[in-house]
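Help needed: design a sequence for this.
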């Protein structure tokens, strides 16, 4: 009986030693615990061998590895269809494009523009001394039967754009209301004769410092007043307001002497500045 107990004890010790060897040498046995837990278990088994007791698996708790948080899904980035295209440059319009179907209505300043600007296209309806009243009444334009007023001659043609500059000869009018009311009648008549045309009211050009000193009714203070009225009239009548005066006004607010012949009318250099403004401001 005693021999059987000793044999049983030896078998238990051999099992314990075999388990310790497996854990320490890392044989093909895979445990459900982390490596740290395996070492603790092996240490516990070795202690049990020396004490003659069978190691207990429950004596060592496995070390749980922290749960990994799920990775956030990547946000898909939009893929461009192709290389970005540079914005297109606006086409450069020629004088033919801008003015071949244009008409210019005005007084002696517009007449000078026709002669000295270098513009070779467009139709002109102008006369020395023309006013917002005379363009409807005074016969100044050649016609089949003789002479006719400017607006009657304008009505004979077809135009896409109509430029109007009138007012320098009206600067001496006492009532500015008379000027704006008559100008509005001119616009109404032009629009009735050319319903599809675009109409531009042009600002009055400044005069030179020498002309300003003459203290006549043709002076820059009066011109600035009238230009304000013209801008308001353009808005009221749904016309375009163009400001060629800004292109020929010097730092002192007057017409530079090198751009005028007499302080009121432009020379060829001044007319070219006027044309340059119109080219840069098509409508």
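Sure. Designed sequence:
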């Amino acid at each position: 009986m005693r021999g059987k107990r000793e044999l049983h004890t030896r078998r238990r010790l051999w099992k314990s030693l075999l388990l310790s060897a497996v854990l320490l040498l890392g044989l093909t046995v895979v445990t459900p615990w982390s490596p740290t837990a395996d070492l603790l278990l092996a240490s516990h088994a070795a202690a049990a061998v020396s004490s003659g007791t069978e190691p207990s698996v429950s004596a060592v708790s496995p070390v749980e590895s922290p749960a990994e948080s799920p990775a956030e899904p990547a946000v898909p980035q939009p893929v461009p269809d192709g290389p970005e295209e540079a914005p297109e440059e606006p086409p450069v319009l020629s004088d033919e494009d801008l003015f071949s179907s244009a008409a210019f209505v005005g007084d002696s300043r517009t007449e000078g523009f026709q002669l000295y600007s270098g513009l070779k296209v467009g139709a002109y309806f102008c006369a020395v001394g023309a006013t917002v009243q005379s363009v409807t009444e005074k016969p100044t334009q050649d016609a089949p039967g003789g002479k006719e007023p400017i607006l009657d001659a304008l009505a004979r043609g077809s135009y896409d754009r109509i430029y109007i500059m009138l007012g320098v000869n009206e600067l001496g009018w006492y009532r500015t209301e008379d000027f704006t009311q008559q100008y509005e009648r001119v616009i109404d008549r032009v629009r009735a004769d050319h319903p599809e045309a675009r109409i531009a009211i042009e600002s009055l050009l400044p005069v030179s410092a020498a002309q300003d000193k003459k203290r006549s009714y043709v002076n820059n203070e009066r011109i600035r007043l009238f230009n304000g009225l013209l801008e308001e009239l353009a808005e009221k009548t749904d016309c375009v307001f163009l400001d060629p005066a800004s292109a020929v006004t010097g730092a002192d607010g007057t017409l530079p002497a090198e751009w005028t012949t007499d302080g009121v009318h432009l020379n060829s250099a001044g007319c070219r500045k006027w044309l340059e403004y119109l080219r840069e401001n098509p409508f």
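The two ends are 124 Å apart (CA to CA).
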